[in-house]
Design goal:
single chain, 340 residues, 2 domains, Rossmann fold
Length: 340
C-alpha cells in the first residue's frame, strides 16, 4: 500500500465522537455482541504496515500488555496489503476470535463489509470515519494535548527561533498534532518561525531524515519527529528533537527531550470489558486516547530531567495540570500547517 493511496482516503475524513464511557451503548437500538463463554478472550490484530510503524506499534504494545493483565490470547498479522485485508480478517473471524483490532484506513469499505458479515464478533479499528452498527467500533490517537506541552518546551529551548516538524502527510490526525505542537511553541515563544514538511508516507525513514536535514539547513535547531527517521538526522547534525507516539529516548538520549506518547491500553481495556460483558456495540473510542483517560501523556524526560531548566519544567507541569483539571483545552486544529 502506498502512502499516497492512504493519503487520498484520509483527506475527507470526519471524526464522529460518541461518548464511550462506562458500559453504556453508543446508540439507541444498537445490537450488542453476545457475552463470551468461559475461557480467555481471543484477540487478533490486522496491521496494514510493518509493526515498527509508530501507530501500529502502539496498538501492538497495548495488546501485548493486555495479554499479561487481562489474560488475552493474542495473534496478529502485519504489513497486510489492501488486496489481502478481507481474507486475513475473515480467517481470524472464522477461527473464532472474539475481538479483531487493527487499522482500517486504506481498507475502510473492506473492513466494514467483513465486520458486517460477522455480527457476533467485535471489531475495533483505527478508522477514517465513524462507527458502524452493530459491531464496528473505531478509535483514533487524540494526543494533541501532550503535543502542545512538547511545543512549550520547544519554544523555550530554541536558540535560533526556528522550530521544525516533519510529518507523514496533511491529514486531520497528523495536522492536529503538528498544529498543537506549534501552538505550544508559540505560547512559550511568540518569536518562533515554523518549518513544516510532509513526506507523503507513514513509513519512510530515509525520506523523513532527508526532510529533517533540509529544515536544519534552514536554521531549525529543534524538530518534532512525527515520523521515524527525523531523530537520526537531528543526532547527526547536533540539534534537538521531540519524539512522537512512543518514548523514543533510547534512539538518541542526548537528542530526544521528550514527546507525546499514545497509550492504547485504556482503549483496549475498555473494549475488552465490553466484549466480556456482552455489550460491545459500535462506538467511537477516541476519548480513551486523551490525557484525562490515561491514553496519552509526555514521555519521561530521562537524562533531560537534570538538563531542562526548572522554569520550563514548572511551566509544562502547570499547563499539564490545567489540562487534566479542565481549566485549559488544547484546540483541535486539523487545518494544514504551513511553514512561515
Amino acid at each position: 500500500m502506498s502512502g499516497m493511496d492512504r493519503k487520498t482516503l484520509f483527506l475527507n475524513r470526519r471524526h464522529i465522537l460518541i461518548g464511550a464511557g462506562g458500559l453504556g451503548l453508543a446508540a439507541a437500538g444498537g445490537l450488542a455482541v453476545p457475552a463470551l463463554a468461559a475461557g480467555p478472550l481471543k484477540v487478533a490484530a490486522v496491521f496494514a504496515t510493518p509493526i515498527e510503524e509508530p501507530w501500529d506499534n502502539q496498538i501492538h504494545v497495548a495488546l501485548q500488555k493486555a495479554v499479561k493483565t487481562l489474560g488475552l490470547e493474542y495473534k496478529w498479522s502485519e504489513n497486510v496489503q489492501e488486496a489481502d485485508f478481507a481474507r486475513v480478517m475473515r480467517e481470524y473471524a472464522q477461527k473464532g476470535y472474539d475481538l479483531i483490532v487493527g487499522d482500517a484506513f486504506a481498507a475502510e469499505r473492506i473492513a466494514r463489509q467483513v465486520a458486517k458479515s460477522f455480527p457476533k464478533i467485535a471489531f475495533l479499528f483505527g478508522s477514517g470515519a465513524g462507527p458502524a452498527e452493530p459491531n464496528f467500533g473505531v478509535f483514533d490517537n487524540w494526543i494533541q494535548e501532550p503535543a502542545y506541552l512538547a511545543g512549550i518546551i520547544a519554544g523555550k529551548l530554541t536558540k535560533t527561533n526556528v522550530v521544525g516538524a516533519v510529518a507523514a502527510m496533511a491529514i486531520p490526525e497528523v495536522n492536529r498534532l503538528v498544529n498543537a505542537f506549534f501552538a505550544g511553541a508559540k505560547e512559550a515563544n511568540p518569536a518562533i518561525k515554523k518549518k513544516v514538511a510532509f513526506i507523503g508516507s507513514f513509513f519512510d525513514p530515509p525520506k523523513a531524515k532527508e526532510a529533517a536535514i533540509a529544515q536544519i539547513e534552514a536554521k531549525a535547531d529543534l524538530i518534532y519527529a512525527e515520523r521515524f527517521g527525523v531523530i537520526e538526522a537531528c543526532k547527526e547534525k547536533g540539534v534537538l528533537a521531540i519524539s512522537n507516539m512512543s518514548d523514543q529516548s533510547a534512539i538518541a538520549p542526548d537528542t530526544v527531550i521528550t514527546g507525546p506518547v499514545w497509550d492504547m491500553y485504556p482503549t483496549i481495556e475498555q473494549a475488552v470489558k465490553l466484549v466480556k460483558a456482552g455489550v460491545f456495540t459500535a462506538q467511537d473510542y477516541g476519548d480513551f486516547s486523551r490525557m484525562l483517560k490515561g491514553g496519552s501523556d509526555l514521555a519521561p524526560y530521562h537524562g533531560w530531567e537534570a538538563k531542562l531548566p526548572a522554569d520550563v519544567k514548572d511551566l509544562v507541569a502547570k499547563k499539564r495540570e490545567d489540562i487534566l483539571s479542565g481549566n485549559f483545552r488544547v484546540d483541535v486544529d486539523e487545518g494544514t500547517p504551513a511553514s512561515d
